[in-house]
Amino acid sequence: MTATLVLCRHGQSDWNLKNLFTGWRDPGLTEKGVAEAHEAGRRLKALGLKADIAFTSVLSRAQHTTKIILGELGQDGLETICDQALNERDYGDLSGLNKDEARVKFGEEQVHIWRRSYDVPPPGGESLKDTAARVLPYYIHRIQPQVMAGKTVLVGAHGNSLRALIMALEGLTGEEIVKRELDTGVPIVYRLNPDTTIASKQELKG
């Protein structure tokens, strides 16, 4: 039995382009982001992949990316489940701030701690540990059973919600996962063994 899990961060958003903390705010994709989503779909199609079900967050940039990918796969009508458990990390009071301006306001060291520590949240927001606390139960109860039933499952989400999944899948520590960079619009294809361990991993970069 082949169990396939495809993770893809959304294409570039308008706020990615403007270097703003985004979190649960809901900007759309840029033209580049739309192109990245189309390319992601074409790369998955070139592998001969067809999704059986898709999951995404309630934020439009992830939903739009997922819809474009499915369109490239010829699967416009595929069942897609949206849930805020897969939302990006909530940046709280940093949301909407330019990252450079935030460094001036709060100090470079403090902003670095908020961005790159595992368990220190920004004011009013979530740490990556907090994000994992909502993402992982959802994965275990809703997504993983679909994968382990032999289905090909597409998850279109965000940098930090996907980091939380990757941390669990690859057995990484909090310190290791915060250093992992995820490019926008680049699918990662995992083939899983019957015991849920990774048989293979393929990152579909250009």
Automatic annotation (TrEMBL):
Q: Relate the assembly described in the record.
A: Homodimer.
State which pathway it belongs to. Answer: Carbohydrate degradation; glycolysis; pyruvate from D-glyceraldehyde 3-phosphate: step 3/5
- Record key words, sorted: Gluconeogenesis, Glycolysis, Isomerase
TM annotation in the entry: none
Provide the protein name. Answer: 2,3-bisphosphoglycerate-dependent phosphoglycerate mutase
In its keyword annotation, does this UniProt entry include Isomerase? Answer: yes
Catalytic center at which residues? H10 (tele-phosphohistidine intermediate), E88 (proton donor/acceptor)
One GO MF annotation is: phosphoglycerate mutase activity
Q: Which EC class, in a word?
A: isomerase
The UniProt site entry described as Transition state stabilizer is assigned to: H158
SMART domains per the UniProt record, alphabetical: PGAM
Q: Per UniProt, what is the name of the gene that codes for the protein in this document? A: gpmA
Protein's organism: Labrys okinawensis
Q: What is its EC number?
A: 5.4.2.11
- The answer to whether the entry has keyword ATP-binding is no
**What family does this belong to?**
Belongs to the phosphoglycerate mutase family. BPG-dependent PGAM subfamily.
- Residue positions binding substrate: 9-16, 22-23, 61, 88-91, 99, 115-116, 159-160
Report the coiled-coil segments: none
NCBIfam families assigned to the protein according to its UniProt record, in alphabetical order: pgm_1 (TIGR01258), PRK01295.1 (NF002339)
**Catalytic activity from the UniProt record:** (2R)-2-phosphoglycerate = (2R)-3-phosphoglycerate
Under the heading Gene3D superfamilies, the entry gives: Phosphoglycerate mutase-like (3.40.50.1240)
High-level lineage:
Bacteria, Pseudomonadati, Pseudomonadota, Alphaproteobacteria, Hyphomicrobiales
Q: What role does this protein play? A: Catalyzes the interconversion of 2-phosphoglycerate and 3-phosphoglycerate.
- What HAMAP family has UniProt attached to this entry? PGAM_GpmA (MF_01039)
